[in-house]
Design brief:
The protein has about 160 residues and is mostly helical. It has ten helices and no strands.
């Protein structure tokens, strides 16, 4: 209203509109559930947000604490462990979500030991070969399976890929 729009002002308004739209898209993503910075960046990329604006939005939300890889990784690792996931599966899942190895290692360290989680599964399911295969599929290490199921059963289970 009454302000002349020269080329520079039009560009500035366009940049601010793009930034605002990207922030609104990011807000709709993190409103539903916690995500890692890499996942948020990917979602914004799929929404055709340009790389510079994407970086600014992700950085701003990270600085504000709305997106926090350590918090996300901790919650995700705990949730997977509660659903009978072994350390290998948790590592793989977090790495696929763009979490750094240092953060993954810290999350794994904060969890209940893998052998205790495997023992709980064995107490519920029994110590047979079927349980050993189940634990293998859930990403438990060979040592945890042997410890929970016993040497004879773990030898019958398929080898764990590391």
């Amino acid at each position: 209203m009454g302000v002349e729009l020269d080329r520079e002002r039009v560009r500035r308004v366009g940049r601010e509109l793009r930034r605002h739209e990207a922030m609104a898209k990011a807000a709709s993503v993190i409103r539903r559930r916690d995500v890692s910075t890499a996942e948020l960046d990917t979602r914004l990329e799929r929404a055709h947000v340009d790389p510079v604006t994407r970086g600014e939005v992700v950085e701003r939300l990270s600085a504000a604490g709305a997106v926090d890889d350590a918090r996300f990784a901790e919650q995700r690792a705990r949730g997977l462990a509660e659903r009978n996931a072994g350390d290998l599966l948790i590592r793989h899942d977090l790495a696929a979500r763009g979490i750094s190895m240092e953060t993954i290692d810290a999350c794994i360290e904060s969890l209940e030991p893998e052998t205790a989680r495997a023992q709980r599964v064995v107490e519920r399911r029994g110590a047979g070969p079927k349980t050993a295969r189940y634990l293998t599929g859930k990403g438990f290490s060979e040592d945890a399976i042997e410890s929970a199921c016993g040497e004879a059963v773990a030898e019958d289970a398929p080898p764990v890929v590391r």
